[in-house]
Design a protein that fits this description.
Blueprint lengths: L1 H34 L1 H21 L5 H11 L4 H5 L5 H16 L4 H8 L3 H18 L1
Helix pairs in contact: 1-2, 3-5, 5-7, 6-7
Pfam families: Bac_DnaA_C
Protein name: DnaA protein helix-turn-helix
InterPro entries: DnaA_C, Trp_repressor/repl_initiator
């Protein structure tokens, strides 16, 4: 029940944010012509704030950079980490992304959405990482 309410609030906030971003974007050129560079700087600041708010509301977008770094470090394409491949290198990289995401405070459903997989796959991966870390101790 609480999760549904949070989803509805997040969805409503995103819809409002979409409208704000469209309005700011459409008035940007008019503001520049009418009020000069200082006003343009203020519009740019509003756009940056909107992007930051979007990252808060859509935490899975925060994982894009992590996925890219993990993919590059492991010599894998990003699509492999987000895909359904089950080779050991791909699974290990995916588990690394899951562990980093969890450390950043993302929930299992949020991680699952970002990686386009089931929540049970995320919980399994997190358990396996925890077990490996404990064994390495």
């Amino acid at each position: 029940m609480e999760g549904d309410q949070a989803f509805r609030v997040r969805h409503a906030m995103l819809a409002s944010l979409d409208g704000l971003e469209q309005a700011v974007h459409s008035i940007g050129a008019a503001v520049a012509a009418e009020f000069g560079d200082d006003a343009v700087a203020r519009v740019r600041a509003i756009e940056a704030d909107a992007q930051m708010l979007r990252r808060v509301l859509l935490p899975e977008s925060m994982l894009d950079e992590v996925i890219e770094v993990v993919a590059r470090t492991n010599g894998l394409p990003v699509a492999a980490i987000r895909g359904a491949g089950r080779s050991k290198p791909v699974v290990a990289a995916r588990w690394a992304v899951m562990a980093i995401a969890r450390k950043r405070g993302m929930s299992a459903p949020e991680i699952a959405r970002a990686l386009r997989c089931d929540q049970s796959s995320v919980t399994h991966g997190l358990r396996r990482v925890a077990a490996k870390l404990e064994a390495a101790g």
